[in-house]
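Issue 218. Parser rejects a valid record. Input:
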Amino acid sequence: MPSKRKLHTRAAALVLSAGLTAWPVLAQTAAPAVSGTAQVNASIKAPERAALCMACHGPGGVSQIPAIPSLAAQPRVFIENQLVLIREGLRDIPAMKGSLDGVPDAELTALARYFSAQPAPAPAKGTVDAQSFQRGKELAKAALCGTCHLPSHQGRDQVPRLASQQEEFLRNVMKEYRDNPGPGRDTVMAAALYGINDAQLKDLAHFFAHSP
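Output the parser choked on:
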């Protein structure tokens, strides 16, 4: 297991491009297991602290709240690094301030392992705006989003999953990167979103949210 020094160093070096929001205060049950490989992954025992996360981030890490991201199927390294950044004060998320104080690396690693192994959320419910979806798809291709996030936009290593993420959250966080990048935010993302207007951000979020 990585030492605290290694986790802290890696997190500081990999200032990432999407993240966690509210740290929860209530417990919910995990999402039911599914068949095949996903069943094996979903059977990973949830750390005790995971129940707190699921109060806001949803059962099994699948968010039911538009402004709060899903954690399910996010890359393990991405989640782990975000947790360390927040714990060490390198990312300022008011709703989570102090919530990770003193939490040891072993617990953060267990949380990351658990949520990364959960089945991915389904694409967003509701009617797809075909024109907005297509504009977002074309813009994502032009902006080379698939270079880091993979062509499927499922993320890897320290790069987050965008596919089937909450649409409102995606729109808000991209706007934050573009307009107000701060400590713990990826400057590469700020540059990638430079010049993209609000309407285009809305199209991108719509495309990612409705992608499997």
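Fixed in the parser; the record now loads. The CA atoms of residues 90 and 197 lie 28 Å apart.
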